[in-house]
Amino acid sequence: MRTVTVIGGGIAGLQAAVFTAKAGEDTLVLDNGQSLVENTSNIQNLVGHDSVAGHELLNSGEKKLEEFGGEKKEETVEKLERTDEGLKVTTGSEEYVTEYVVIASAGILDYIELEEIELEEGVEGPNMMDKHIVTDESNRAAENVYVAGLANSWEYQTSICIGDGAKAAINLLTDLRNEPFVDHDM
Ligand SMILES: Cc1cc2nc3c(=O)[nH]c(=O)nc-3n(C[C@H](O)[C@H](O)[C@H](O)COP(=O)(O)OP(=O)(O)OC[C@H]3O[C@@H](n4cnc5c(N)ncnc54)[C@H](O)[C@@H]3O)c2cc1C
C-alpha cells in the first residue's frame, strides 16, 4: 500500500507531492502531461522570479520531487474508488492502493467514483473550470481525500495553485501524523 498518491502532476500536485515526499512519506504522482501552466511562457507575478515559464516551474518541481524520493509516472487515471483495502486508483495500465489521495487534476474530475465527493459550480470564462470539488478549510473533501489547485477553486493563478498544493499536503500530513505538521528548513 502506498501512503500518498497525487492525481495530476501540474503545479498544485507537484507542490503537494514535494511536501509529502520531503516529509519522508512514500509519494507517487500520476500525470498525463496536460498542465495548463505549460501554456505560459512569462509568469511575472511570482515572488522569487522576475519572469518564469510554466515548463520551468514544472521541471524544477519534478526535480525536487525526485530529490526527496518521490516518484512520478506518466499514466492517465481512469478510476478513483474506495475499497476495503484503501483508496484504489486505476490507470490504463496499473492499479494502486493508497492510504491518502490528493486530487490535483484541474477540471478533469470524471474518474472520481467516491460517493462522498460533492461538486460545485465554478466560474464561467476563458480557461475557467466549470466545476470543482467542495472541500473544508483544510482542503479535505472526504476521509483521506485532499484536493488542490483548480480542482479545488476557481482562483486562476499559478501562485494560488502552488500555495494550495502546499496547504493540502500540510493538512494531509497533520491528519496522517495526528499532530500539527511543521516543515522547517533550519
Ligand atoms: C493560456 C494560459 C495562460 C496562463 N497564464 C497564467 C499567468 O500568466 N499567470 C498565472 O499565474 N497563471 C496563468 N495561467 C494559469 C495556470 O496555468 C493555472 O493556474 C495552473 O496551471 C493550475 O494548476 P493546477 O495544478 O491546478 O492544474 P494543472 O497545472 O493544469 O495540472 C493538472 C494536471 O492534472 C493532469 N491530469 C488531469 N487529468 C488527469 C488524469 N485523469 N490522469 C492523470 N493526470 C491527469 C494534467 O495532465 C495536468 O498535468 C494560465 C493558464 C493558461 C491556460
Task: Reconstruct the topology from this structure.
Blueprint: E1 2-7, H1 11-22, E2 27-31, H2 54-67, E3 71-74, E4 77-82, E5 87-91, E6 95-103, E7 119-121, E8 131-133, E9 140-142, E10 145-147, H3 158-177
Parallel strand pairs: 1-2, 1-6, 2-3, 6-10
Antiparallel strand pairs: 4-5, 5-6, 7-8, 9-10
Helix pairs in contact: 1-2, 1-3
The chain binds flavin-adenine dinucleotide.
Flavin-adenine dinucleotide binds near residues 7, 8, 39, 43 and 150.
How would you describe what is shown here?
The chain is α/β, with parallel strands linked by helices and 186 residues long. It has a single domain (2-177), classed as FAD/NAD(P)-binding domain. The chain has 3 helices and 10 strands; from the N terminus they run βαβαββββββββα. The protein has helices at 11-22, 54-67, 158-177; strands at 2-7, 27-31, 71-74, 77-82, 87-91, 95-103, 119-121, 131-133, 140-142, 145-147. Strands 1, 2, 3, 4, 5, 6, 9 and 10 form an 8-stranded mixed sheet that branches. Strands 7-8 form a two-stranded antiparallel ribbon. Strand 1 (2-7), helix 1 (11-22) and strand 2 (27-31) form a beta-alpha-beta unit. Helix 1 (11-22) runs parallel beside helix 2. The longest helix has 20 residues, at 158-177. It is globular. The protein starts with a strand and ends in a 9-residue tail after the last helix. The mean pLDDT is 95. The protein binds flavin-adenine dinucleotide (FAD). Flavin-adenine dinucleotide binds next to helix 1, strand 2 and helix 3.
